[in-house]
Specification:
Layout: E1 4-8, H1 12-23, E2 27-32, H2 35-41, E3 47-50, H3 56-61, E4 69-72, H4 78-90, E5 95-99, H5 103-111, E6 116-118, H6 125-133, E7 137-142, E8 147-153, E9 161-162, H7 163-166, H8 168-172, E10 174-182, E11 185-188, E12 195-196, E13 201-207, H9 208-211
Parallel strand pairs: 1-2, 1-4, 2-3, 4-5, 5-6
Antiparallel strand pairs: 7-8, 8-13, 9-12, 10-11, 10-13
Helix pairs in contact: 1-6
Amino acid sequence: MRKQFVVIGLGRFGTSVAKTLNALGHDVLAMDKNEHAVQDIINDVTKAVQADAREEVTLRALGVRNFDVAIVAIGDDLEANILITLMLKEMGIPMVVTKAQSVQHGKVLERIGADKIVYPEQDMGIRLANNLIRTNVMDFIELSLDFSIFEIITPAKFVNKTLGKLNLRAVYKINVLAIKKSADQIVIAPGASEVVDEGDILVIVCNKGALSSLPD
């Protein structure tokens, strides 16, 4: 399902999130006060604008209130970070993700309604982007700019069907490397007759863009 994201603040973290979301096939509005930062990303997102996100009239003019997810990636200005997070929540955006500089900062963001708080030293931008897109992604290993290995919770649509019937390679362009049945039972290189059960963890390899086509 295609979603709309707005990323505010185009430092290393914000740029990483914005580019990855765009590469995964979603609409991304990237915003920063710095003209150079905007120019650097303009060809890698749906739209990039130079603007001061502290101005509510600007956010409304850009239609930010209609976006599915907002990511506040500003880290060097705590006042702006908190103010923008608060305004976005008051606008009714379903999910606001905010970058925090410290545990104390995170507590403030939590109190004003941030839905997810990210600590840069713990969460890389690429990992966050994938988790925002696919709530059933448990972990992933990046193999290249295009391909990754993902661990996903079995989508309900796959339950009680064989891999042969699902034909995942043809339908979704993914390959199943293994199925984790339990902590101590892993089926390596499962065959076409292997049945996928509820609660199974599928270890798959695919192009990042293919992941968004999978059912929840």
